[in-house]
Predict the 3D structure of the following.
Amino acid sequence: MRLDKYLCQNTHLTRSIAKKAIASGQVFVNTQCIKNSAIKIKEQDDITYLGKTITSLSRRYLMLNKPPHYICSTQNELYPSVLTLIEVQSVQALRIVGRLDVDTTGLVLITDDGQWSHRVTSPKKECYKTYQVDLAEDINSDAIQHFKQGILLKNEDHVTLPATLVIKERKKVLLSIQEGRYHQVKRMFTAIGNHVKALHRVRIGSIILDTQLKEGEWRYLTPEEISSIN
Ligand code: URA
């Protein structure tokens, strides 16, 4: 890997600041000052920046059981970011895979691997997200076919991709969708004259929310969970 890439992957430095740090002699590879950003480093090399060894933060993949009143943004706004619940080194390098509304709870994936994240969120990858939905009104079984065929959401001009609805109780359903349009689940139920009272994500692809995790708790994904996204 190039020296500047290694630095910005494993520190808070951006690529251009990493290049400047290297050019100004602040970076050493195995005790030798290196001023060329393009130099290729090996796994066993010792890289220091301002006298401190930079350890490799290899890619990280986490699942969080999101509580309500936290936002899926890297910055705190009116509510705190879900990243404030993750106490790991260089939390700033992590990104939230897709978004849940502030009042939605359940499975959130977090990673610093942009390509993996894209495979979860891209509708082309058909990675289904499953939600437990509590409804205000009784569900009509016609909705199963309706959601399968796709529905037109307010202010949109193309129908939703096929979604799977499983009716659990009169006002409790499981809905699996493969897109992540703005407030999609809530708007789908609004479109059929119902109203979502509570929304909890339980599954993304074949990754299931770990029931051992209480609200606000997280764990690293297993190698099997990571490789299930492809
Ligand atoms: N759909 C919604 O309406 N809200 C969410 O948080 C996720 C999906």
